[in-house]
Amino acid sequence: MAHGLLIDYQYCSGCHTCEVACQQEHGYDAKTLGIEIKTLGPTQLENQKWQYDFIPTPTALCDHCQNRVEKGKVPSCVKHCQAGCMSFGEVTDLAKKINREKMVLFSLK
Predict the structure, then answer these.
(1) Contacts of 75 (CB under 8 A, 6+ apart)
(2) How far, in Å, CA of 104 to CA of 84, rounded?
(3) Residue ranges per domain, the chain?
(4) Which UniProt keywords apply (predicted)?
(5) What are phi and psi of 10, to 5 degrees?
C-alpha cells in the first residue's frame, strides 16, 4: 500500500519546524529542503477579510523519512509539527479523514 502525508493548511502557523526537522533528519544545508512552506498572501478580500495562508509542500527530495518509517516511526516533519496539522499513514486511511477545504493529501512513493 502507498503511504501519504495529509496536511491541514487551515491550522499551519508557518513556524517552519517541519522544514528544520527535515533538514536535521537528512543532514541538509540551510538552502536544501525536503518540505517547503510557501506563503499565500496577505491578500485583502471583500468585506475587510484577509487571506494569509502557509502551505507546507513536500519537495522532490521528500522520501517520507523512509529510515524512520521502516522503524515504525512517523516522518520527522509530522513528529515535530507544532500545529499538529500533519498526519502520515496509508493513503486510503488518510483520504477518509479529509472533511473540509484546505486539507491536502500527498501520495508518496
Answers:
(1) 5, 22, 64, 65, 68, 69, 88
(2) 14
(3) 3-108
(4) 4Fe-4S, Iron, Iron-sulfur, Metal-binding, Repeat
(5) -60, -30
Gap between the Cα atoms of 52 and 108, Å rounded: 27
Place of cell 483520504: 95
Distance CA 86, CA 46 (A): 30
Grouping H, G, I as helix, E, B as strand and the rest as coil, residue 17 is helix
Gap between the Cα atoms of 58 and 36, Å rounded: 6
The single residue listed with the C-alpha cell 509542500 is 57
At 20, list the grid cell. 528544520
Hey, what's the cell of 9? 493548511
The residue behind cell 496539522 is: 85
Amino acid at 70: E
Domain covering 3-108: architecture: 2-Layer Sandwich (3.30)
Query: Mind giving me the DSSP string for 32-45?
Result: --SEEEEEEEEEE-
* Stated pTM of the model: 0.90
